[in-house]
Every structure is written in C-alpha cells, then in structure tokens.
Amino acid sequence: MDGWELFLSSLGPLALAGATASIPLAVISFAVGLAIAVGIALMRISQNRVLSATARTYISIIRGTPLLVQLFVIFYGLPSIGLLVDPWPSAIVAFSLNVGGYAAEVVRAAILSVPKGQWEAAYTVGMGRARTLRRIILPQAARVSVPPLSNTFISLVKDTSLASLILVTELFRIGQQIASASQKFMVVYLAAALVYWVFCLVLSGLQNLVEKRLDRHVAR
C-alpha cells in the first residue's frame, strides 16, 4: 500500500476512534471538570480564608504542573500506594482535575464581571446569597464564560491524545497502532492531525453558533 492509499484508508478508523473515544472522553472530563471549576471558583471568592486559600493552592498546583505529569501521577503513581486505577478512569480523573483548575479562574472572572448592583437588588427583595448565586449571578456568568470555556473544551479534545500514553484506545492510540504496523509514521500522523483539525473546526463552528444565539438575548 503506497502512502496516499494508507493516508486515505487511515482516515476512517481514526475518525471513528475520535468520535467514539476521544470526544466522549473530552465531554465526560469537561462536564466533571466544570463542576469542579464552579466549586473551586466559589471557594476562591469566599470570604472564608481557609476555603479561599485552599482554592488558590489547588489552582496553583494544576496550572503549575504539566498535564502529562498529572496523568502519570494518577495512572502510574497511585498504584505505588495501593490505588489501582484503570486507564479510562485515570484519564477522566486527570483531565477533569486539569479542567477544574483552569476553568475555575474563567468562572471566577465571569462571576466577578456581574455588576454588584445585581447582588444588591437581589438582597433588597429578600434573596439570600445562595439563591442569588443560583438564580441571578450564575446564569449571567454562564453567558460571559461561554467563549473561554469553549476554547478550553476544544483544547481538551486535542489533549486527549495524551491518554494514549496510558494505553487508552483513542484517536492517537489507533494512529500509533496503524503507524507501527505500516512503518509509515509520517503519513499516519498527518492523517491523525487532519482528523483532529476537522474535529476542532466543527467544534469551533458550534461555538460560534452558540455565541451568536446568546448574543440575541443581550441588550445593545
């Protein structure tokens, strides 16, 4: 099989692996990570110094260490203390914690961008802090945070390629297997790059659609 034929024949398996493994891995990890991010962001803006310091420390650790190291600590490090975690859960935990650390600052900034008058108006009508957050502040913050969080998700889709290093069978892992069998690494890896690029183009298009839809509800 020549290079062009291998390139074309590799696209199908790579795209299938991306759709059935890489994208689901990214979606699950992002959903869990976003929940972590909201919790950490609320701790970060809390007046409780212990909670705020804990959140700052978590963010500092996540942002100050490579994702690959975090992945290896969970998959290869935890077994040394008796905690065995399979490849898929290890990847989800690592990616979720990483997203939580980066997205927490996005969520915090979005919450702080809501005018203080919104808080005061809610308190005036008898709402407590928790209800004000849930009913008034977070919905407005969510709209502001869509663009940066969408970029975080798109980056996560690409970062799922690191899961191949802990034996998760996703898009890049399939590419490695095809390349190893054919010994035509450049051709196969270029095919993998093309598939990642197409996925990111589609996701960027969806991001633009969501942003335009949200803009319709913003007063000019």
Structure description:
With 220 residues, this protein is mostly helical. It has eight helices and no strands. The longest helix has 42 residues, at 3-44. The protein is flat. The mean pLDDT is 92.
Question: What keywords describe this structure?
Answer:
220 residues, mainly alpha, single chain, 8 helices
Largest sheet: none
Q: Runs with pLDDT <50, length 5+?
A: none
Topology as a string of helices (H) and strands (E): HHHHHHHH
Q: What integer value in Å does the Rg equal?
A: 21 Å
Summed over residues and divided by their number, the pLDDT gives a mean of: 92
Total strand segments: 0
What separation lies between the terminal Cα atoms?
59 Å
Beta content comes to under 5%
| Overall geometry | flat
Q: Residue share in helices?
A: over 70%
Q: Provide the structure class.
A: mainly alpha
Number of helices: 8
Which secondary structure elements does this structure contain, and how are they paired or packed?
Elements: H1 3-44, H2 49-64, H3 67-77, H4 87-113, H5 116-124, H6 129-159, H7 171-182, H8 185-215
Helix pairs in contact: 1-2, 1-4, 1-7, 1-8, 2-4, 3-4, 4-6, 5-6, 6-8, 7-8
Summarize the structure.
The chain has 220 residues and is mainly α. Helices cover 81% and strands 0% of the residues.
